[in-house]
Write a structure and sequence with these properties.
single chain; 198 residues; alpha+beta; Maf protein; binds 2'-deoxyinosine 5'-triphosphate; binds magnesium ion; EC 3.6.1.66; nucleotide-binding; nucleotide binding; magnesium; dITP diphosphatase activity
């Protein structure tokens, strides 16, 4: 079976990539399969810089094609926060529960129509000896006032999708991937990398 290395240690992302690549005949390996590998410091100021950092570190180390995902939640009423710092919004230990609480606290009193937000995903593909390539995807939604649903990961329980009238955490993995920032970025990747992905 063909293998693809996804340079992430995030369990939620890993599950989504497994489902996305399975129909293409790929076995997904992630950094969760290499717990001894040190985490790459995300020193970039943009999703693109961080995605490239993560992809190149993994492809250099393992000498294989690696795909990294840098993503986050941008909330209009918070001037785009938590943005690139989404994972560590409530502290460096990366706690989804605390991050959600902080968002809801900072949006207290903000009316529904002003709770617009989007998820962003940049994927970087690094092949040893070749120039790293990036694609992006976004998903528009609204921030709820309480958690709804227990699927997905990260900020999914407070991210409301108007068209489906539910949060991302109330969807199946397939439903989420069909509309998500990650799913859209991967669709673009399939177009630019047909030889590798198909
Ligand atoms: O579909 C999503 N549904 C909900 N939340 C999401 C999603 N996509 C990204 N997010 C949030 C989670 C985390 O707070 C941040 C990503 O941070 P980000 O640095 O890219 O990932 P990470 O540090 O968890 O794992 P890694 O760098 O090993 O891939 O945005
Ligand atoms: Mg990270």
């Amino acid at each position: 079976m063909k293998k693809v290395l996804i340079a992430t240690a995030n369990k939620g992302k890993a599950k989504e990539f497994e489902s996305l690549f399975a129909p293409l005949g790929f076995e997904v390996t992630t950094l969760l399969d290499y717990p001894e590998m040190e985490e790459v410091e995300e020193t970039g100021e943009t999703f693109k810089e961080n995605a490239i950092l993560k992809a190149e570190a993994a492809s250099n180390q393992f000498k294989v094609m690696a795909i990294a995902d840098d993503s986050g939640l941008l909330i209009d009423a918070l001037n785009g926060d938590p943005g690139v710092y989404s994972a560590r919004y409530a502290g460096k230990e990366k706690n989804d529960e605390e991050n959600i609480k902080k968002v809801l606290r900072n949006l207290q009193g903000i009316p529904a129509e002003k709770r617009t937000a989007r998820f962003h995903c940049t994927l970087a593909v690094s092949v040893p000896g070749e120039k790293t390539l990036t694609v992006t995807g976004e998903c528009e939604g609204m921030i709820t006032t309480e958690k709804l649903g227990d699927g997905g990961f990260g900020y999914d329980p407070i991210f409301w999708i108007e068209d489906q009238s539910c949060t991302l955490a109330q969807m199946t993995r397939e439903e989420k991937s069909a509309i998500s920032h990650r799913g859209k970025a991967l669709e673009k990747l399939k177009e630019v990398l047909p030889k590798i992905i198909n």
